[in-house]
Amino acid sequence: MTVKTRPAPQGAWYLGLKSGDVASRCILVGDRARVDMFGAHLTDARLLSDRRGLRTVGGTFQGVPVTVSAFGMGAPIAAVLLEELAAIGVRVALRAGTAMSLAPDRLPLGTFIVAHAALRAEGTSLTYAPLGYPAAADPLLVRTVVEVLKASKLPHQVRIIATADGFYSEMLAPTPDRAAPVDKRHEEFRRLGVIAVDMETSTLMVVGSLLGIRAGSVCLVSVDGPGRALLDDEPRQAGEQQLVEVALQALIRVPDTNEGD
User: Fold this and answer.
1) Cβ atoms 10, 18 nearer than 8 A
2) Is 1 a residue whose pLDDT tops 80?
């Protein structure tokens, strides 16, 4: 039997896209449904790819070309997505997602957290650089997101966020009998002054830096880790709509790496 083959796509193996298909500015989300929330704010929104669940749309926001793409959950696929987007033209990447509070008295649910740096407690970034390499956000992107949040009068904090791999082993105990190691992990983070955690930010910062991309992260705090509680549906939906507007407003104000500061 003859097996037919074809050349692998250059740059975007899983997305199946090529240079010119995406804008230089991109929002990265976890939830595929959030792609459509962003798409509703874009002019001439169009589906670019939906392969392997990596739902990607393009359009313009206030006249500026923008791409929005979903990675699902976790650092490995987030790195794959950023690699492919960078290969075909993305130069600014802003993660817009949700995060878990490890100290709700200090970081209440419904607050926005802008990560100026991240604690690398995941494994994917280690395949790119040793732990001595910092996971730091692009300072111009951080400043711009904060300016938009302030102008919108939304509650926010600028902090270091931890990024971990094990949701049920490091972030949220699924049952009381498994709470001890999760509580210990939370305490390790809090001892360092880190009171929020997600599953992607540190990897995106490291990969973005190595690829020469402006990378940053803004998240709605929607989960109380120690209390095992979720933000109620109504405030969560309102917060996610605010997240969409903030992320888009910030993204279009930041020059890409080819334009200079």
Assistant:
1) yes
2) no
CATH at 147: 3.40.50.1580
Which distant-in-sequence residues (6+ apart) come within 8 Å of 2 by Cβ? none
**Residue 44: helix, strand or coil by DSSP?**
strand
Within a domain: 3: no
Q: Across all residues in the chain, what is the average pLDDT? A: 95
pLDDT digits (tens, 9 = 90+) for 186-235: 999 999 999 999 999 999 999 999 999 999 999 999 999 999 999 999 99
Provide the domain limits for residue 52: 25-253
Whether residue 104 contacts residue 185, with contact meaning beta carbons closer than 8 Å, is answered with: no
Question: Hey, what are 89's tokens?
Answer: 């033209």
Q: How far apart are the first and last CA of the chain?
A: 57
Q: Is residue 259 part of a domain?
A: no
CA 134 to chain centroid: 17
